[in-house]
Write a structure and sequence with these properties.
631 residues, alpha/beta, Rossmann fold, Beta-Lactamase, 6 domains, five-stranded parallel β-sheet, 22 strands, elongated
Length: 631
Amino acid sequence: MGKTILLVSREEMLHQAHNILQEKKYTIHGMRVISTENAVMEARKAIADGASIIIARGLQASLIKQYTDIPVVEIVLTAQEMALLVMRARQIVAKSRPVIAVVGFRNMFCDMSYFDELYGIDLRMYFAEQGAQLPGIVRRAVEDGVDLVIGGDTAVSIATEAGVPSLFLSTTEDSMRQAMAMAENLDYAMKVEKKTAAQMETLLDYSFSGVIRLDSQGLITAVNPVMEDIIGKKQEQLKGLFVGELAPLLGEEVLRQVLKEGKDSSLFLEWNHTPVFAVIAPVLYEERVEGAIITCHKTAPRAGTKEKRQEQRRKQEERGLPPLVRFEDILQGSPAMQECVRLASLYALSRYPVVLRGEPGTEKRMLAESIHNSSPRKEGPFLDIPCRGLSGEEQRDLIFGSRGAALQAQGGTLLLRNAEELTLANQYRLCQLIRFQVCHGADIARMRKIDVRIMITIECPLPELEAEGKISSDLYFLLSGLELFIPPLRERKEDLKRKLDMTLQSCCERYGRFHVLTAGARAVMMEYPWRGNLFQVENFCERLILTAGKRSIDENTVKRLLGELYPEPSVPDRAPGLNLPGEGTLEEEPEELRRIRAALKKYNGNREKTAEALGISKTTLWRKMKLWGIA
């Protein structure tokens, strides 16, 4: 149990305390009368002697709270005590409706909202925020012409000097008893909190998982020894840091969901080259988020020693291979991309194939590299093979042959780009590789066992590809699981803005230029659809900076260059009788074309929403777009 000390300004309050203690309901470990000038010094003496709670009143309580860190229970006058003082004041003033001033600190008093009506007085409250303000507050009450002042020692002294009647804020045993009861409750709450903290400390210290405690702002308040080992830093170095700086993959959206909406989340992270699966749970108190707990579980250990990994990196550098991309290298300021990266980080834990779908120029390759680089296969090779533009024989030899990519990617990851371009025979070989981890080229009798993870990129949804006969049903069902859709830049305004800023700045630095965009030019670039996404942005900015004739680039310059580089596609000529089922006649086709383009523009190129708005299937929409030359 803690020590409670009572500090009061008058002997009569000390006598009241002695009377209450005879009831043996409360425990006070020390009490004495002090002057206001010595209040802070006396409090510090009590703290040095082991005090954990101080009971005080008025200015003394305010000063102790201001200049020490100890909990202070303030003696608050009850309604009955204030009523007695008001009745005595009426007797002293002897007016039909006297003006009475109550001077002090707001938390010294009970609610006196209806005292005017109840006691036939004009009650005026003069509250000070700090002790230094109190003398000025008393003088203002005197200047206002009040008939009597009720207050503490300072108020009574100043009122007496000014010749204004006054009453000291004397208390009965009621307010003292309430303060002692509150101190008992506070002491109990502090003991419970200490016990809970001790239990939490033991739980953290002996947990086999890494644990981080966050406050409501996402700042680290504690980490356990396992987490110190994972991060590679001590708790003293981590306390007070924003967790998003240590783990960028958490992302603003994940932290917002946990700390603002009270939703739990989970994702795959890497800390100090250690892959972990993290579960983030909010700490809720009375439906309010008070912080969060992050629990980190180590995933499969990476193969090889530290020296072996360093040797592999050295060999990779000697071969001139660029370093693999990590998740934090990907633009993910938008909620849509944050969700995409979150799913990708989870897919890194699996050995099953990953399908990456997106428009040309989106981060399909970057995400594939990031998944590989965050997976247990990260020390193995990563190979990227195009399927488009190759004959069936070339595909077979390049991917499945005796010196093919599948064999070269042993223990690592093989990315097949535009996998829908594989012939049916090679799709069968891919099914065998995914399902049974066997590979064969031209000679089916020469099968080889291969451990490789497959990733593929496609531009249309898998169901459309199957419906069009582009991929076999076997391959469709083998792939339909871990699919990622990479949203285009036009649907990620935060990422588009960041990409434009980064690319323009990079171009200016590379060529020693200094150009700025007008607000109109920036608006045009932000609204442009960028069907080529990252590739198109990078090439356009390169041309824009190289050919800019003046420092300030306006919207006309941007529009002119966009029109020059990317003219609107013309409507293809079609012979009569080539209408698709359900289409109108040749004379109606321009109207249909306008409707498709308008719907695509309205839904930012989203084919699913466009097809739904037009009342057709996604497959039919894809066929019409292909027929009309709409990319």
